[in-house]
Amino acid sequence: MIILVLLLPTTVMGASLNEYPAPRHGLQYTESASTWDEAFPLGNGILGALVWGDGAPLTISLDRTDLWDLRPVPEYYSEDYSYTRMRQWEREGRYEELKALYDDPYHRPAPTKIPAGRIEVSFPETRAFQEGHLDLRNGLAEMRFAGEVRVRVWIHAELAVGVIEVEGAPDAALRLNAPDFAGTANDQRSTGFVMGELSQLGYPPPLESAGEGFAAFSQQGWESFSFAVHLAQRPRGNGLLAAWSIASSREGGSPPELARARAEAALDKADELRAASTAWWDGYWNKGRIHVPNPVIERQWYLDMYKFGSAARRGAPPITLQGPWTADDGKLPPWKGDYHHDLNTQLSYWPCYSGNRLEEGLGFLDWLWKYKQNAEDWTHRFFDMPGLNVPMTSDLELKQIGGWRQYTHSATTGAWLAHHFYLHWQYSRDRKFLEERVYPWLEAVAVFLEAITNERDAHGKRTLPLSSSPEINDNRPEAWFPSITNYDNALIRWTFSKTSELAEELGRYDQALRWERALNEMPPLALASSGALLVAKGFPLEASHRHFSHAMAIHPLGLIGRYQAGTVLATMEDLKRLGTDWWTGYSFAWLANLAAWAEDAGTAEHALETFASAFVLRNSFHCNGDQSGKGLSKFTYRPFTLEGNFAAAAGLNEMLLQSHAGVIRVFPAIPKSWDNVSFSTLRAAGAFLVSASRENSRTTSITIQSETGVVPVVQCPWTGRMGPLDTSAMSEVMNIARNGDTWILTSKKP
Fold it and tell me: Are 155 and 44 within 8 A, CB to CB?
């Protein structure tokens, strides 16, 4: 794969892509962060840390992604908890009973993600904060204080350890604090979105210990769950060296012993570990880099892909709403820090495909597969139907945690998640993964959708009772529409179509016919007279709304292609006409993807720039509400969630490279003003790695490597002609040089 980087001319604007991310892409603070949500984020998928404060103290907020209170919701094992009963109560208008059974349990303290505590670094004498920066190239945060004092903090890219290096202050003091499960702290600042107090969980006090060169605590959680944090330190030069680890009972063994052993081992080989961690980040950035002449968008992309590398790992839990950066304010995390599968989790993994981070993305799919049985058990218990569906809100083990009854019990959540299995197959062409994971997941979802759509409408078409469209009409009774929504219909049509496609790919022709028949029995998507997608038949999108769920058929599902440009453009026009009053940050990120799909480069650029300038906090965390004060949205609330960040990165990828319908297209949706653009080793569907350069508003070269040996199909950027690269028609319109499975394309014109 590195051959592509070496073959492609990577010099842009006087710099090499190999030097990216550059220092300007990282975070630089001249004023310290006073709240945890503006901190420098560090992470490796399993451990997370937020570095903030002015030295009085400097705080390192700790997290581990499998720290969860998993107490079950008893109502969801009751006799009344069923799809049949839900339909009955909806018909009878028993909305208070529906709310009490399906919605209200969410407002209890648990199940919930929980934090891991904090480390505080302080100095006996006042040391004024001078400067702080986060280096994206190696995931290292450095703070400088008066008197030539430096504090460096980093988390190993692969091991469950973090390291603190202090220079110039041998008398620095380190303090380890357990989370405030007792509810006694009064000096912590909330960011304004409170789900409840940690003390509501009812945990006993931590078991704390300290001695020469260490501090530790062990915390008992719900039932048998526990975790431990160990901080070890020793003098080094004119300062000190410290290491911490967090261990969970879910690992097996003794959490205190695991945490102690890892922290002490890190002290013994800190320099070696730092080099290994830097090497991992080098490899991560070698998987894909970009340059665009809009510095705001370019920087946001690197910040977002850095966060993705910090939050997504194979072998670790997938990205929750806040990833490995759980709130550190003595409160329960916003929305419990859970998994929302009506948008949030899915958008979080959009950039791993075209962004060439498939390995990191597999952590999500491995997790879904690991807990597939829990989802199937829920499907059979609640729906009393065969196959597979997934709760929209779930805990660490993919179990239902409730709230928003119309969406948490949606029939198509499993299909939304199936899309990611399919994307991995499309971009990797891993046939074993197709046979063992992709097709079994899609087939199980298709079986369920076939069962739940067995009722017919007046035209003899399949229909879906209790159909909704996240989060249109929010949690009101009207959120269930009288006919199938375009959101549900698109996901069902997509599932039947792709299950049929993959069955044929695997030679299971009877199955392919079965799912093709089911697809043909679905009603068409509901369109307005203008051609725009409706929410449901007879229900246009009538007001500004944060979710573009009615437009799923365009992006990401791709059921509506460019040959249906009228529908794409009319749907986009509806979104623009209704305005952004009730959009959140991720709405702008999703719009960028839609606009890139529609080749509306101006809209895509504007959406990404708006996102980066108005809907992120100073550390680049996506903040749901408008932080600019310019009235871009009536939502102004603060809590961060990460899906907007990752969808924004995917939006820029879409502007630079598209491979829908099996055709590789470079720079398909870039503004005319972007005269110098380049990217290296982005990924196209079909398992192709693509690099390209554009100088003085003209594409200069394209390099494509086929991982499977298949000849790529390309749209010539100089003439627009499309075809396989091994045909004479394509060699007529551009120079094609082949070296094994790598093709280098240049213009025939000088």
Answer: yes
Phi then psi dihedrals of residue 38, to 5 deg: -110, 10
User: Can you give the residue ranges of every domain in the chain?
Assistant: 31-68+114-286, 76-107+355-523
Q: Would residue 45 be called left, alpha or beta, if left means φ above 0 and alpha means ψ between -120 and 50 degrees? A: left
CA distance 79 to 16: 64
Residues 383 and 403 sit within 8 Å (Cβ to Cβ): no
How many angstroms separate the CA atoms of 313 and 309, rounded?
7
Contact by Cβ (8 Å): 9, 679: no
CA-based nearest residue to 642, from 658, 620, 662, 661 = 620
Place of tokens 């945690």: 401
Average pLDDT over residues 97-106: 96
Q: Is the pLDDT of residue 471 over 90?
A: yes
**Residues 543, 545: Cα–Cα separation, whole Å:** 6
Question: Per residue in 119-149, pLDDT tens?
Answer: 999 998 889 999 999 999 999 999 999 999 9
Distance CA 227, CA 432 (A): 37
Q: Is 685:358 a contact under the CB 8 Å cutoff?
A: no
In this prediction, residue 750 has a pLDDT band, given cuts at 50, 70 and 90, of: confident
Q: Are 495 and 503 in contact (CB under 8 A)?
A: no
Other beta carbons less than 10 A from residue 397's beta carbon: 15
> Of how many residues is the chain composed?
750
User: Which sign, positive or negative, has the C-alpha torsion 443, 664, 690, 572?
Assistant: negative
Name the token pair of 312. 């997504």
Q: Rounded to whole angstroms, how far apart are CA atoms 181 and 203? A: 6
Q: In angstroms, rounded to a whole number, what is the distance separating the alpha carbons of residues 555 and 559?
A: 8
CATH 3.40.47.10 for domain 31-68+114-286, yes or no, is: no
Closest CA to 3 of 730, 747, 703, 720: 703
* Beta strands 239-248 and 742-747, pairing class: unpaired
Structure tokens at 415: 């299909």
Q: Which residue has the tokens 């949690």?
A: 475
CA distance 311 to 45: 4
- Label residue 208 left, alpha or beta by phi (over 0 means left) and psi (-120 to 50 means alpha): beta
Dump pLDDT digits (tens) for 526-560: 999 999 999 999 999 999 999 999 999 999 999 99
- What's the number of CA atoms in the CB half-sphere (13 Å) around residue 595? 26
Q: Which of 250, 390, 272, 228 is nearest to 316 (CA)?
A: 250
pLDDT above 50 (res 8): no
Given a cut of 70, whether residue 151 has pLDDT beyond it is yes
Asked whether the whole model's pTM tops 0.85, one would answer yes
Q: How far apart are CA 424 and CA 366, in angstroms?
A: 12
Question: From CA 329, how far away is CA 604, in angstroms rounded?
Answer: 36
Q: Is the fold of 31-68+114-286 the same as that of 76-107+355-523?
A: no
Looking up tokens 């690099």 gives: 691
Dist CA 163 CA 242 (whole Å): 6
Residue with tokens 């709240």: 35
Cis preceding-peptide flag for 717 (omega within 30 of 0): no
pLDDT bin (cut points 50, 70, 90) of residue 7 is very low
CA 346 vs. chain centroid, Å, equals: 6
Instruction: Please choose, from the candidates 595, 586, 598, the residue with its C-alpha nearest in 3D space to the C-alpha of residue 626.
Output: 586
DSSP for 121-157, written as a single string: EE-SS---EEEEEEETTTTEEEEEETTTEEEEEEE-S
The per-residue pLDDT for range 413-467, each reduced to its tens digit, is 999 999 999 999 999 999 999 999 999 999 999 999 999 999 999 999 999 999 9
CATH class of 76-107+355-523: mainly alpha
